[in-house]
Amino acid sequence: MTNEPLLYFDNNATTAVDERVLAAMLPFFCETYGNASSRHPQGERAAAAVTLARRQVAALVSASSPDHVIFTSGGTEADCAGIFAAWNARADGADTILLSAVEHPAVIAPAESTGARVELLPVDANGRLNIEAAERRIAAGGVALVSVMFANNETGVITPMADLARLGCAVRAQGGSLQVDAVQAIGKVPVDMQLLGADFLSLSAHKFHGPKGVGAWIVDGARHPNPSSFMLGGSQEAARRGGTSNVPGIVGLGEAARLARENVSDASLSEAVAARRDRFEAGLLERFPKTKILGAASPRLPNTANLCFADIDGETLLMALAASGLCASMGAACSETKRTASHVLLAYGLTSDEASRCLRFSFCRSTTDKEIDRGLELLATLIPALATIT
Ligand code: PLP
Prior knowledge:
Elements: E1 7-8, H1 19-25, H2 27-30, H3 41-60, E2 69-72, H4 75-88, E3 96-100, H5 105-113, E4 117-121, H6 131-139, E5 143-147, H7 161-173, E6 177-181, H8 193-196, E7 200-204, E8 215-219, H9 236-239, H10 247-264, H11 267-287, E9 292-293, E10 304-308, H12 314-323, E11 326-327, H13 343-347, H14 352-355, E12 358-362, H15 369-389
Parallel strand pairs: 1-11, 3-4, 3-5, 5-6, 6-7
Antiparallel strand pairs: 2-8, 7-8, 9-10, 10-12
The structure holds pyridoxal-5'-phosphate (PLP).
Pyridoxal-5'-phosphate binds next to helix 4.
């Protein structure tokens, strides 16, 4: 390990809490610590802060009303909530849940647990869905829910909002629902519930400089005025999600949403992140021309680079990078402990061997050119050294 500061290139796993977010949260631990459901000044102050956060989150995703924002313990809970609510609201005869082949486990696992027939929509080598084929499948009938992520956590590949909206129209015309997991997109690109026409949308604060363990499930309140809840208990969140409100977390999510809304509305900020990501990719390709960039021909998040290296084992490189102070990832952080080939990369048509040579580097708006160049230098030293050993 060097004495240089860590190079944190793993922002799709989680981000640093913005100092303004932390400052907004702090009073809600020891000063305004009331239960937001309590009828006294402490509780009312906490409830007012929750109300403000609900407005901030609704504004970030252009939800039609703050009442359509339901606070959760994060993206996983929001994804589960959408799957179960859509399944419980299914029309007679609907027995199928359609997922893109690259969904997060937070979508796949609850979908499988319902007992529905789960069908996967394939993607091409650049991670793109065939929207016409999906529409044809939906029109054939029996689909209770389509769940397609906005941006992929491993490659950053985006399904454009217009395409998601087409899926939404197709499935709603049949009485089914569209769920959009926007966990990785929020704070990086604009996400608009009105343009999407989604029934359910998931987001998670820790992916956009908010705290861990808090997120939101946004519902189309016109279609789902009383979505069924699987968090049974008290009548918090208008009886749609039981459990004492995590007031500091919700306040942090609200402030992170306010900041994210400012950031995504300034295109120059995401262009700057994309320029650094492109500089990193170009620098690697120059030194190691056989490296492949996953999803290069698709619209991608500005911050994500997933690179398939020639002749080098990804895990060996990841460990060597970590030992030298560079934090990257093999893919989804939640699958880091389970060494099977990524289902996302296999869906892109990679072999298991190719998938084992891929690493994800994910940047954020505070990543600097100097850090990118230090990362490149490190890779330029480590890759040839490791290639001779492996
Ligand atoms: N969906 C996607 C696309 C994700 O990347 C993640 C987390 O990595 C989740 C859902 C789960 O979110 P959380 O960590 O808040 O449970």
